[in-house]
Write a structure and sequence with these properties.
Helices cover 28% and strands 34% of the residues. The chain contains 3 helices and 5 strands. Strand 1 and strand 2 form a beta hairpin. The relative contact order is 0.25.
Length: 154
């Protein structure tokens, strides 16, 4: 996320249109570009927060620091005829450095999306549900970032 502290107005209200989220786009089997949150596998000895930071960097080209837990998504999918269970722990990361790139071979595009447009941009219902949770959390988190003197590096 970028722009948290900057989204807080003088009166303490928060303009969610000034907070941006990095999303990744992947082509599905039909050639449609589907937008989702960066995610990936935990490496041996790696915690969930470290995994989130690494995967965001690998998939988007930007470095982030976990500052809040967002939620967990549990789902099943089939790959090569095998049913696979996956649990994904999502976190909110504040932008630290870097420029968006789609160098990861699994990623087709990467973009910044204002949080005011996030829910309708996400392709998957479970991620839209998490985006609604983030939407509810963000005003307090943005005010905290501002009160701690944080600014988004430009």
């Amino acid at each position: 996320m970028s722009g948290l502290a900057e989204s807080v107005r003088e009166d303490g209200t928060v303009d969610l249109g000034r907070i941006y989220v990095a999303l990744i786009g992947r082509l599905d089997r039909r050639g449609r570009l589907l937008w989702s949150m960066p995610k990936g596998h935990v490496e041996p000895g790696e915690g969930h927060a470290a995994t989130a930071e690494r995967e965001v960097w690998e998939e988007t080209g930007v470095s982030g620091e976990v500052f809040a837990e967002l939620g967990v998504i549990d789902y099943w999918f089939v790959s090569d005829g095998v049913r696979i269970h996956k649990t994904v722990h999502h976190h909110l990361l504040r932008y630290l450095d870097g420029d968006l790139n789609d160098e990861d071979p699994e990623v087709t595009e990467v973009t910044w999306v204002p949080t005011s447009e996030l829910i309708e941009r996400l392709a998957y219902a479970d991620e839209r549900k998490l985006a609604r949770c983030a939407h509810d959390m963000l005003p307090d988190l943005a005010r905290r970032e501002k009160s701690e003197g944080r600014r988004t590096p430009r």
